Amino acid sequence: MLRVARFLLVPLLLIAIALLVLSQTSRPATPPKVLTSLGDRPLVIAHRGGKGLWPENSLFAFERATALGVDMLEMDLHLSADGELVVIHDSTLDRTTNGQGPVAALDLDQLQALDAGYRWTADGGQSYPYRGQGVRIPTFDEVLARFPTTPKVIEIKVPDAGMEARLCDALTTHDQLDRVIVGSFYERSLQLFREQCPAVATSAGPGSVRLLVALNLLGLSSVLSPSYQALQIPERHSGLTVASERLMRTAQARGLNVQLWTINEQPVMRRLLDQGAQGLITDYPDRALQLLGRSTRISALGD
Ligand code: G3P
Ligand code: CA
Description:
By secondary structure, this protein is α/β, with parallel strands linked by helices. The protein has a single domain (29-91, 138-297), classed as Alpha-Beta Barrel (TIM Barrel).
């Protein structure tokens, strides 16, 4: 027993010293301009432009969500066959448009000929009010041009396709490097994007979320120096609670802005805000605005 204790003493001491050094030298994230410009109030983030209210990831949705007064627009990026960044969630066209097959199989003009309002229904398929109304898949450039000052959450949906550099170029061209948070479910995409576009705020990838959860459980979160500024997480994943009150408080202490997806019911919104959520990514931004006592009137729309 004594021999085992002696055997473990040196490695344990080294680990303790390493943790002590890390906790002394670690730094919390610095809040990025895109978030400081929004102040301290809870953020209402329109998921895919507010997909419960109008056809997702469309200029129509982004225009109305902006007029509703949301703080940020969330959107998803894919690549067309001819290399344009397009705003659509799925890798295939079938769920949201009157087209079929992979997004990546069609050129931009073919994608934009499709009806992106074709499948939207609010009554379980009894009516399709946006069919034939001219709703189409927008390019990312169109979105940046139409909403130059609106803060955005942008998700890279395709890794290993060169989207990171194209995204950085588009944000640079439109002078919106400090108006967005970029996220992805692909850690390697995020790492590449951070290397190529260091001025842009990012959210934690899945590996970083797992590390934060583990450090939080071990009480070791003070050793973390996040390479990201926002934590965008679901409340639960695979039957486990991710967004515990303790995790959200810990993340805030590490300088992170904690945003929860996809939160659509007001009692859940209220509870999560009380527990430390700083942003709600929601299909129904009107509900979040109402809960927060903010206006739910749609102000004048542009053309
Ligand atoms: O930020 C992640 C959120 O957008 C949820 O993912 O599948 O709706 O793009 P998804
Ligand atoms: Ca998304």
